[in-house]
Amino acid sequence: MPAKVVKANLTPQLPPPEFSRSLGVDMETENQALVRRIGPVAIRSHTDLAQAAMDRQTIGEMLKKIDDWFAPLCDAAFKLHRAITSRRAEVKAPLETVDSKLRNAITAYKADEDRKRREEEARLSELRRQEEQARLAAEAAVLEQAGDRVLAEAVLEAALDAPPPVVVLPDTTKADGLSFRKVWRWRYLNDDKERALQLIPREFLCVDEARLTKYAAAMRESGKVPGIQFYCEEIAVRR
Fold first, then answer.
1. Do 121 and 101 touch, CB atoms closer than 8 A?
2. Is 213 helix (H, G, I), strand (E, B) or coil?
3. What is the value of pTM for the model shown?
4. Element housing 130 (H / E)
5. Mean local confidence (pLDDT), 97-113
6. N or C: which end of the chain has fewer CB within 10 A?
């Protein structure tokens, strides 16, 4: 009798969802009490201003306490996450590499086959157009010999104006388990980015907000960029 195959449970055992909710409960309770004590934020006098400054000092101390308490856990979780995702990438890499090669090979094959099919459809269409024109020309010759010149000219005119017949050949790139999805992409015209940027309409250009922020910090009141207003605001900080 063949040995019974026992499948291993590969699902990682994670902490229950309520585990994270149990972290820092005491600090959370203390924080909620402080939030209730502060109440609605409204500064109407210098006394309120002084109290608000003191409250911010207390909040700052409590925020630091929270950060210090969670820091080791976050650091350990980050390192574990990085190790797991790195290992996952290593395990997947060989499959993803060969899958990419297969996808590219299939894409190239389909593009080549589609090109050949279009060329053959155009060749057959032109051939049938010529055959139809030859048939109509022969018909017009018979009509002209019979003395019906007007009808013969009409037949020849119809032969010249007739659109080429549509030829559709079967797609040879169909296979079980294979489908294609059209994905439209873009590239700079003639691969010349500098020239293309001179032609692209404004609605497709993006403001470099990060660069503007750095420029404002560096240039301060002397900063000048058309369409941009640089201003200064004072933000309360803890001491």
1. no
2. helix
3. 0.59
4. helix 46-145
5. 93
6. N
